[in-house]
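Journal club prep — side note

Before the paper discussion, L.F. wants everyone to see what a predicted structure for a comparable chain looks like in token form. Sequence:
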Amino acid sequence: MNLQQLRVLIVGCGNIAGGFDAERPASALPLTHAGAYVRHGGFRLVACVEPEAQRRDAFMQRWLVEKGYPSIETAAAAGPFDVVSLCSPTPLHAAHIAAALSLHPRLIFCEKPVTRCAADTAAAVHVCAAAGVKLAVNHNRRWAPDIQRLSAELRAGHWGAVRSAIGIYNKGVLNNGTHLVDLVQLLLGPLELLAAAAPLFDHWPDDPTVPALLRTQQGVPVTLNAAHAADYAVFELQLFTERGMVAMEDGGAGWRVRRVVASPHFKGYAVLDAGQRTAGEYLASTLAAVGNVHDALTRGTALASTGETALAAQRLCERISRTARALPMDDDFNSTLSPATTLSGAFASTRSPALLPTLTERVPSTSH
């Protein structure tokens, strides 16, 4: 089947751009933007942006990128672009979205979080919408086939009533907590914060891991528990339902389902069986994501993960962090971040695409 070829610019040439796939076999499911674009077959890697020349050249050689540039402004010479993939560090996202919009792409595929604060993310969502540019955000579990099936099963009532949900994560409520909150909101709907416990600064100096108690609009309690990033990486979710327990383990690499059975010891009591672990489809999410991007631009298919869904998760996680640190509940969250991470000004004059500022800040590398 001959697919329409969409022209791609990748900004940042680090691990998530292509590094994680650089030495993986061609038969392995891709984990990166470049790897997924190449595997899909409906994209053409026209250009990349990376200020470090050696890294840029290596990326171009590995992924057969046609042209490389040190900045988004200079990359305009290779346009037009259908898709701009933002794989740069989070502190640069706001400025890079503004600069990318000046190239008039049809879609921006941004790594999470969109920006370092909800106010900047809201601004990014607004200016993209005003410019008529779709904004996809890589909360990648929204594209995992098994999670999409579970979401459909829950909506259809296959599991009966959901009684509670328990999640555990580490390495920052913004960095990883947004993934967990976004996942729960996909499965169970909007969440409300009830309480937040003491913050755990286990990796980032300005992004603690925070335990929290939330609830859904139907009153289902949701508990977020914290682990320490120095010990190991963990990202898991348990859903206790009327008809059993469903657990996502190892970030989605595995699943465990425990069904209701009669107790072998106590007559008249129902218990959960030991369950059985099955392989997850998390590794298929990146390829599914670019497939969704392609379909969104060629068939009008809705995006599974958008700026709006990402903003909803970030606002809640920001509220969790503020509550844990007893910070004011206003739009002054920028004051808790270092000057290098506050980029609201990137959108200060974005009344139309023609007025979008260009990127002026320079850092040693624009790669994760």
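L.F.'s comment for the group: Confidence is low (pLDDT under 50) at residues 329-368. Keep this in mind when we get to the figures.
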